[in-house]
């Protein structure tokens, strides 16, 4: 019987060992590429955040060009609400610069005669303004409205009115809690109420004696309405005053707080931390290790969370006459 020659058949499948090797190689490649992709995405988000801050800063400059003053961080005055009843009218600087921002039509909707907490302005204050939000922030931005002048200086969250607003991730410097050398040789906590550019009366460029390139105009305070502390989301606030800062149309001139090293205490005689500690009333961002700021000359910068507290204090105050070194 004749048997023909048999050629070995071509193998069209992987062995189990080969398949496992390929999977391992793919896993290693993904592990190498994923951090690079995430870093590239964060770099793009940070650039967009910088552009947003620059746009708001330029709007403040245009405001000054028209009115010969920068806007106050907030306006609070006696007026009449949309219901006809006497009230305190409260409006923040972001609402004031709306007419000077390209592409914003909210100035036609937001009624400057009424406060940000007036029911007539609910359609406006609940609209998202892309230029007021950092793309790295995880917040949806919808937060309760707290206006102590009208609801009383309550700490009770249940006492807040049933109205909301969209938060801004960018705020202005009104005042500063910081440490100051005492006559006894140590440091004590002090409160400079209107030392910032966006104080309650507004500032002219001529008032910025330290120089516009040496003074903060705006800074990031992102993540509202959620409470964040040192990179961790906290339980929902039980103190209504947490919501005093946040809405883009509201109280935007912040009295910035200093914090203890462990991030649990604010405004104490040993509190020297400012950045990326807590987002209640301090600079806070979701960019690794930094916050974005815009200086009074319109330039944007990153500010490291490890920057000296003295340098941050000097940058925040417009006429302390202190020399600022490299940062």
Automatic annotation (TrEMBL):
SUPFAM superfamilies: Pili subunits. Residues 38-309 form the DUF1559 domain. Pfam families: N_methyl, SBP_bac_10. NCBIfam families: IV_pilin_GFxxxE, pre_pil_HX9DG. PANTHER family: GENERAL SECRETION PATHWAY PROTEIN G (PTHR30093), TYPE II SECRETION SYSTEM PROTEIN H (PTHR30093:SF2). This is DUF1559 domain-containing protein.
């Amino acid at each position: 019987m004749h048997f023909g020659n048999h050629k070995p058949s071509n193998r069209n499948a992987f062995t189990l060992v080969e398949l496992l090797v390929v999977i391992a190689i793919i896993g290693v490649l993904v592990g190498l590429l994923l951090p690079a992709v995430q870093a590239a995405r964060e770099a793009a988000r940070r650039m967009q955040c910088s552009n947003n801050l620059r746009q708001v800063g330029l709007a403040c400059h245009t405001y000054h060009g028209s009115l010969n003053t920068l806007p106050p961080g907030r306006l609070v005055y006696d007026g009449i609400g949309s219901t006809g009843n006497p009230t305190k009218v409260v409006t923040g600087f972001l609402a004031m610069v709306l007419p000077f921002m390209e592409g914003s039509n909210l100035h036609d909707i937001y009624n400057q005669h009424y406060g940000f907490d007036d029911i007539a302005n609910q359609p406006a204050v609940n609209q998202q303004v892309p230029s007021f939000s950092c793309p790295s922030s995880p917040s949806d931005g919808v937060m309760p409205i707290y206006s102590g002048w009208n609801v009383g200086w309550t700490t009770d969250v249940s006492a807040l009115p049933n109205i909301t607003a969209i938060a801004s991730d960018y705020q202005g410097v009104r005042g500063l809690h910081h440490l100051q050398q005492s006559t006894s040789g140590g440091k004590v906590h002090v409160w400079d109420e209107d030392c910032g550019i966006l104080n309650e009366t507004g500032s002219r460029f001529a008032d910025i004696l330290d120089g516009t390139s040496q003074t903060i105009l705006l800074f990031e305070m992102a993540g509202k309405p959620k409470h964040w502390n040192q990179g961790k989301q906290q339980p929902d606030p039980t103190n209504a005053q947490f919501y005093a800062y946040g809405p883009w149309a509201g109280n935007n001139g912040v009295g910035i707080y200093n914090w203890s090293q462990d991030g649990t205490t604010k405004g104490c005689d040993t509190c020297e931390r400012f950045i990326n500690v807590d987002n209640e009333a301090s600079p806070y961002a979701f960019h690794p290790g930094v916050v974005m700021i815009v200086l009074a000359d319109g330039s944007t910068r990153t500010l490291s969370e490890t920057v000296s507290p003295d340098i941050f204090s000097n940058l925040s105050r417009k006429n302390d006459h202190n020399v600022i070194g490299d940062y």
